[in-house]
Design a protein that fits this description.
Helices cover 44% and strands 10% of the residues. The protein folds into 4 domains: 3-69, no CATH class; 74-157, DNA polymerase, domain 1; 188-363, hpI Integrase, Chain A (Orthogonal Bundle); 376-424. The protein starts with a strand and ends in a 23-residue tail after the last helix. With 448 residues, it is mostly helical. A 3-stranded antiparallel beta sheet has the order 1-4-5, covered by helices on one side.
């Protein structure tokens, strides 16, 4: 049992007089879980000291029983995430671990959660609403919430926290909202590739620049030649990644899995592998390469010699954000300022928000609500095939690697006004006739 008391202290004056005094503050003394005695100041009143003693003894008892003693709100959520990620790494695949780590970091940073008291349902829901405004599918948004809930459930099971503060948040219905993508036009493809080539240097200049001048312009910044070369290579990498999706129909994770061993640059053929992440049909298939893409791959191979098992292009967790920024720079998407409630802030005549935004989101939807994301590059490949004359539907289906033609032409091959107009141009002209040709006269029925 501990005790509450006021300590006494004494000293001797210069004339030899002994003086004793009692402190104004109250102290507590108790034994911790290891048996060591602790003495510390606890308050200016006896009641405060008694409350502090009860709390200290309760923490000691909880520590002896393996229960959490730290206050829930004081715990660092970043430290908790690091411990959870370290726990998760040997138990899941490397790709799953990297994805969970990145999504958890994005959610914590996006909701501005530093201590566990900051990880509340409201800021997390606002962050998820921002992802929805960017055009992310409900299933993808649920993955972000799932990563946070999984971390908190592990913390509860490990007796680090008593309960999960996000348990009240529900997943978004995945069957209600379907993302409708659109294909890029030839002009938009060109704009995107130019933006992607200049993207790394453009993003670097944005990081290095200082505050704007009074007229809104920035002081020019010259990047070193060596740094410019590195950003140029990174831009060429991004352009090639986009072209692989646009000219072969590969999905993002399939492009990420592509190695030089999967390419026959002599025959101009790409081979898909069953073990690739994102290969939905799980089959090995040979896809022909366009002449322009084949020439680019040959030049890229000369610049990147190495083992055949190395990746053709690099796609990281930052590639999606870089793609969104490339869309904005190409004029295919817009950055929208939002307030704390996730509502858009209107712009003034100069195109600036009328008040300071709480966050910015990228709007990739057109007027019809169709989304332009990275998977839309595969849609563009299918649509470009459908536009070509002389390409039969079976060939389009085979190049898209679909088992059902309804998926190919119902989802991936998009119609456009120019192609529809060209299709009806060949219909014969209809003119009113006063006499019906004899071969078109229908015989009367017997019962008429």
């Amino acid at each position: 049992m501990g005790r509450v008391f006021k300590p006494k202290y004494a000293w001797t004056k210069a004339d030899g007089t002994r003086v004793e005094k009692i402190t104004e503050a109250w102290y507590i003394e108790y034994s911790d879980a290891s048996g060591r005695w602790i003495r510390r100041k606890a308050g200016v009143t006896k009641e405060q000291a008694q409350d502090a003693l009860r709390k200290a003894e309760s923490d000691v008892l909880a520590e002896k029983n393996g229960l959490p003693t730290q206050r829930l709100g004081d715990m660092s959520v970043q430290d908790l995430a690091k411990r959870f990620i370290a726990y998760l790494k040997p138990r899941v695949t490397d790709d799953h671990w990297k994805t969970t780590k990145q999504r958890l970091e994005d959610l914590l940073n996006g909701s501005k959660a530093y201590a566990l008291r900051d990880l509340k349902p409201d800021p997390v829901e606002r962050y998820l609403a921002g992802l929805d405004a960017e055009g992310l599918a409900p299933r993808t948004i649920n993955y972000y919430l799932k990563a946070a809930k999984q971390m908190l459930s592990w913390a509860v099971e490990s007796r680090l926290i008593p309960y999960s503060p996000l348990e009240c948040l529900a997943n978004r219905p995945e069957h209600v909202k379907h993302r409708v993508r659109r294909a890029l036009t030839e002009a938009e493809v060109s704009q995107l590739l130019i933006s992607a080539l200049e993207g790394p240097a453009r993003r670097a200049l944005r990081r290095y620049r200082n505050r704007p001048k009074k007229d809104g312009s920035y002081k020019p910044i010259d990047l070193p030649t060596k740094v410019q070369g590195r950003y140029r290579r990174e831009g060429e990498n991004n352009v090639l990644a986009y072209r692989l999706m646009l000219e072969t129909g590969l999905r993002r994770n399939e492009v990420k899995s592509l190695t030089w061993a999967d390419l026959d640059l002599e025959q101009g053929v790409l081979t898909t592998r069953p073990h690739w992440e994102g290969n939905k049909n799980g089959r090995e298939e040979r896809l022909p390469l366009t002449p322009g893409l084949l020439q680019t791959l040959r030049e890229w191979r000369l610049k990147n010699p190495g083992d055949p098992s190395t990746s053709v292009v690099k796609i990281t967790s930052r590639s999606l954000r870089a793609f969104d920024e490339d869309l904005v720079a190409a004029g295919l998407a817009t950055r929208v300022p939002q307030d704390r409630d996730g509502k858009p802030i209107p712009l003034n005549a100069e195109g600036l928000p009328v008040r300071t935004p709480h966050s910015w989101v990228i709007n990739k939807r057109d007027a019809a609500g169709r989304v332009l994301d990275m998977h839309a590059l595969r849609h563009t490949f299918g649509t470009r095939l459908g536009r070509m004359s002389g390409v039969d539907p079976k060939t389009v289906q085979a190049l898209m690697r679909h088992s059902d033609p309804r998926l190919t032409f119902g989802v991936y091959v998009h119609s456009d006004a120019a192609r529809l107009k060209a299709a009806v141009q060949n219909l014969p002209t209809l003119t009113p006739q006063t006499e019906i040709p004899p071969d078109e006269v229908q015989p009367a029925s017997a019962g008429a």
